[in-house]
Amino acid sequence: MEIKKDLKIKENIFLSNNILQSSEEQETLKESSNGRFNPYENNSGTTLCIKQSGYIIAACDTRHSGEMNINSREMTKIYSIGDFILTTTGFYADSYELSIRLKYQINMYEVQHNKKITIHSAAHLLCNILYSKRFFPYFTFCCLCGFENKIPYIYSYDPVGSYQECSCRCNGSGAGMIQPLLDSLISKKNWNNCTIQDLNDEDGLKLVQKAFEAASERDVKTGDFLEVYIIKEGEIQKSVFPLRKD
Questions:
Q1: 46-243: CATH architecture
Q2: The model's pTM
Q3: With bands split at pLDDT 50, 70 and 90, how would you rate the model's confidence at 35?
Q4: Which of 1, 16, 84, 157 counts the most CB atoms within 10 A of its CB?
């Protein structure tokens, strides 16, 4: 009899614990559905832009990843929009939508004004597009590159439209490893009594390759292939190089 009573008590405790657990899970589900929905996903990867005398290099890896998986190994993060190059990282759907919207707005500007848009006007236009979505922003970190009177320009943006001109910029999951290298070798930061000498396009390409090869060794979200665009006045050259695929 005592054994039966003990079994009955244990059964009741087990059932009550299950009921409590299921109710707690239901509350958690309610909270997540009510106020914790996240519409974004960081598809990550790495982009890089540098400018030197007479040319710009824009580069990206082609890995498109989720939280714990690789969705694609051949997904670009660079978009050619007229005479300009747009690089993006973050949520791929937002990045693609932003590139389409910017291309449309630039075409509308050129039709209405019957002239080519300048890189400075395009940069301000991109700022307005991002700022117009500030209450539900595009989750993308981008750079816009182009030439004006044979002078190269790079503009870097945050998701709500704040932007600045810069000489080098790296965004994405590999930025923490690559940006300090660019600050040292391109911007010459903390180089005392040093005259800044620009790299030629061959040396710039080698620097970009080495930077991405090093990042792909440490960053699981950077890899597969490296796309490099060398942009000169009226000319864009594209090259593809292999990276780590594991």
A1: 4-Layer Sandwich (3.60)
A2: 0.82
A3: low
A4: 157
